[in-house]
Design goal:
Layout: H1 11-62, E1 65-66, E2 80-82, E3 88-90, E4 110-111, E5 119-123, E6 133-136
Antiparallel strand pairs: 1-2, 2-3, 4-5, 5-6
């Protein structure tokens, strides 16, 4: 009479499978993480372009820069804006065609970032950068560029 052997995986075979799964996960997870960051960075660039265009439309209509980023999203014409030197100038309400952008909530709008709790927009109201909107950070993007220089 022959003995019946039960078919099962040995400990070595199980360890090899576990190691292979771990190696595949180590390769795949950073790729997925980078795609999420790439999407986030693309969204921030698009938001910057959109907000900068709104600021430019405000200037084209009124002849002055908004005194605050909130003025771009205002439902009525602000009383004053800023000239290129950062001096307060009255706005002719009939030239204003806003709001130029919806969802502006504060002078420093928060943007989530995977490595930092938040990044803030900075809107410059002083010379020489009057009317300039940028991200307030020195973090590097996936393409190696400084996000604050976008």
């Amino acid at each position: 009479m022959g003995r019946i052997r039960a078919r099962a995986f040995t400990l070595v075979e199980l360890l090899i499978v576990i190691i292979l799964v771990a190696v595949l996960a180590a390769i795949a997870i950073p790729k997925i993480s980078d795609r999420w960051r790439f999407a986030s960075e693309s969204r921030w660039k698009a938001q910057l372009v959109e907000r900068r265009r709104a600021i430019e439309r405000f200037r084209a209509d009124t002849g002055v820069w908004p005194a605050s980023i909130n003025d771009v999203g205002s439902s009525s014409a602000p009383a004053t804006g800023l000239d290129d030197q950062g001096t307060s100038v009255s706005i002719n309400a009939s030239n204003w065609r806003g709001p130029y952008l919806l969802l502006i909530t504060s002078n420093n709008s928060t943007v989530l970032h995977p490595r930092v709790r938040s990044i803030r927009y900075t809107y410059d109201t002083t010379q020489p950068g009057v009317g300039t909107l940028r991200l307030n950070t020195n973090l590097l993007a996936l393409d190696g560029s400084n996000m604050g220089a976008w």
